[in-house]
Amino acid sequence: MNISTFLFILMLIPFVSSAQFSEKKIYNIKRTQNSPKIDGKLEDNIWNNLDAASNFSQIFPNNGEPERESQKTEVKICYDNRNIYFGIMMFDNSPDSILRELSKRDEENKNFDYFSIYIDPFNNNQVEYSFTVTSAGVQIDKKISKIGDDKSWNAVWKSDINIDKNGWSLEISIPFSQIRFPDDNKEWSLNMERSIRRYREKYSWNPINNEYANFGIQAGLLSGIEYINSPLRLSMMPYTSIYLNMYNNEYTLPYNYGIDLKYGINNSFTLDMTLIPDFAQVSSDAMVYNLSPFEIKYEEKRQFFNEGTELFNKGKDMFYSRRLQDDLLNASKITGRTNKGLGVAILNAITNKTEQDPLINYNVMIFDKSFGNSSSISLMNTNVYKKDTLGIANVTGIFTQINNKNNTHSYILETKMSQEFTAENLIKGFSGMLGVKKTSGNYQYNLYSLLKDDKYNPNELGFLYSNNEITNGINLSYHQFNENKKFINLSNELEIEHQTLFTDQKFVDLKIELETKFTLKNYTTISMRTTLNPYEKNDFYEARTDDIQKPVKRSKSIYFGGWISTDYRKKVAIDISGGVNMKPLYEGYGYRWRLSPRYRINDKISLHYVLSIRKQYNDIGFVRFDSTSNYIFATRNTNMITNVINGNYIINDKISLNAKLRYHIDQIKNLTFNDLNKDGYLYQNNYNGEHNVNYTTWTSDISLNWRFAPGSQISIVWKNGIDNQSNQLINHWISNLQESFNLAQENSLSLKVIYYLDYLYLRK
Question: Is the pTM value of this prediction over 0.90?
Answer without folding.
Answer: no
